[in-house]
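Researcher: Hi, I'm a grad student and pretty new to this. My advisor asked me to get structures for two proteins we've been looking at. I'm not sure of the right format, so I'll just paste the first sequence and hope you can take it from there.
Model: That works fine. Here's the first sequence with its C-alpha cells right after it:
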Amino acid sequence: MPWPINSSSLVSGREKQPPNVILIVADDMGYGDVGCYGNQHIKTPNLDALAKKGARFTDFHSNGPLCTPTRAALLTGCYQQRVGLHIIPKDQRYAMAKAMSLEEITFAEALKSVGYSTALVGKWHLGDRPAFLPPRQGFDEYFGIPYSHDMHPWRKSFPPLPLMRGEEIVELNPDLDHLTQYCTEEAVKFISKNKDRPFLLYMPHPMPHQPVHVSERFAKRFSKEQLAAIKGEDKKSRKFLYSATIEEIDWSVGEIIKAVRALGIEESTFVAFTSDNGPAIGSAGPLRGKKRELWEGGHRVPFIAYWQEKIRPGVVIDEIAMSMDLFPTMAAMGRAPLPRKKIDGVNLLPLLCEGDKLSERTVFWRSKGKKAARKGPWKLLMQPTKKKRPTSIGLYHLNNDLSEQHNLAEIYPEKLKSLQLEFAAWEKYVDAGRAQKDEW
C-alpha cells in the first residue's frame, strides 16, 4: 500500500538564501487556550497578531496525545511508531533507556547539512543520557531541560532536574518560575548571533506542563492569599496560575518577533507555533477530550504560521495537517535533503504559500491501546474499555459533529469497515518499519 512521501518541493531559486526557521512548541497547551481560537479570558495578543498576519490552521494535529511520541514524530517526520517512541514506560520517564536512536535523521540534521546554524532552547524529552542529547541529534546549541519538570522533588524517586547548556549541567533544580524568561533570553541571543546566516531555532517550551510556573510579572494579578496557598510543586495548588503561564508564553513569542524585526530579518524568517498535544488542565475549546486521549481534544492543537510576503495574511486553513509534516516543510524551505526511507509527513509549503489543496490521505494515531484513523470528515475511534467487554468502536463525522457526540458506526457500517481495514494495513506498515535504519 503506498504511503504519502513528499520528496522536497523546493522554494524558489530566486531567493538569495533559504529562510530562517523558528518553530515554537508549547507543552500541553489546548486548542482553546488562544484568543484567535476562541478563548475570551486568556490574553494572547502576540499569537493573535501572528495569526492575523499569517495562517491559522483549524484542523492541525499532534501525532500523539502525549509529549515524547509527538516530539519523536515532529523531529523525524514520520510516525513515532517507526521510531519506537510511541510510548515511554513510567519507569523510564527519566534516565530513558529508551531514547531516540542516533540513527534517526532529525530536521536539525537535515538543515545543518545545508549550512544552517541550529539550536534547541527548551525541553527535549527524547533521551536524557549524554549520548542522546540534542548536540548528538543535529543541534549546534542546546539550552534547557532534558525531560519534564514534574518529576522532582515531589516524586522522590527521581533525581534533581538539570538545566543544561550543551551536555553540561548549568544548575540543578533551576528556578522554574523564570524558566520561560531564561529560555526566551537564550533564544533571542541565538537569533542575534546568527542574523547573517540561515538558522533554525526549535523552541519547545517546558510550560504550561504541570506543575505550572510563572514569573512575578505575570503572577502579580493574583492576590497574596492565592499565591500563599501554593504548596511547593503540588499541581493542584498551582492550577490557578495556568492562564498567566499561557500569557507569559505569548509574551515570549512577542519577544522573538520583536528581535527578528529589530534585526531586519523578518522578511526572511518563517515562524510557526503549535502545541505537542491537547491540554491537561487548559481548554480544548469545542473539542471533546484532553491530553492522553484520542478524542479530538487530545491531539487537535493550535498551529499558526507566519512568513512575511510568502503566506497570505489572515488566511484560515481547514486542511488536515500533522506535526510530522513540519520536517518535510522545513526541508523544502531550506532546500535540504529528506531521509530516503522514513518520511510520512508531507510538505505544507504549497498549501501555505500558494493555497494548493493537499492530496487526500488517511492519518492515524495509536496510544496505549487507543486507536484512531481520520480520512476527510470521517474519524474512526477504537478504545479499550475499563470493564470486561469488547473494545468501544466509534465513527464520527467531524464536519457535522466536531464534539464527537454522535456515534455513526451502526448507520455507516461500510465506512467503518473501510477505515478499520486502512488502520490494520497502517499498523503492519509502521510496525514493520521499526527496525529500518534510515539514510540520506
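Researcher: Oh nice, that was easy. Here's the second one.
Model: And its structure:
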Amino acid sequence: MEKRALAEGWTPSRYLLTLCNEELLWRESEKLRRYKKEARLPVAKTLSEYDFNQVPELNDAQFRQLCETTDWVDAGENVLLFDASGLGKNHLAAAIVDGVVAQGYRARFYSAGELLQESAAETE
C-alpha cells in the first residue's frame, strides 16, 4: 500500500485513513473466522444446501428468517429443533448458527447428544 500511496501522491491523512480502514477490515475478517471456528459447525451444512423438498411441511421462509435476522438472538431466545431421525435437524441448526455467526454474533452448534453430555457434565 505504501508504494501505491507514493505513486499516486496520497496525502498523509489519506494514507492513514486507508491504512486504518484496511486494519478494520482485517480485524473484522479475523473475528468472523474465529467465531466460525468456535461455533464448531459441521462441514457443508448451509441453508442453500438443504433440500426443503425432503420435508415439505417445513416452512423454508421461517428458517431463512432465522438465518438472516438476529431479532431472536437480541431477545435472548434459543432455537431447538426436534422431530424424527433423518430429517436434517442438524443441517438446519448448523445453517442457523452459520447465518448468525456471519452477522457477527458468537454462537455454538450442538447436536442433541453433545448438548446432553455437556449438560450432564455441568451437573456433576
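Researcher: Is there anything I should tell my advisor about the second?
Model: You could mention this: Helices lie at 2-8, 12-39, 60-68, 71-74, 89-102, 112-123.
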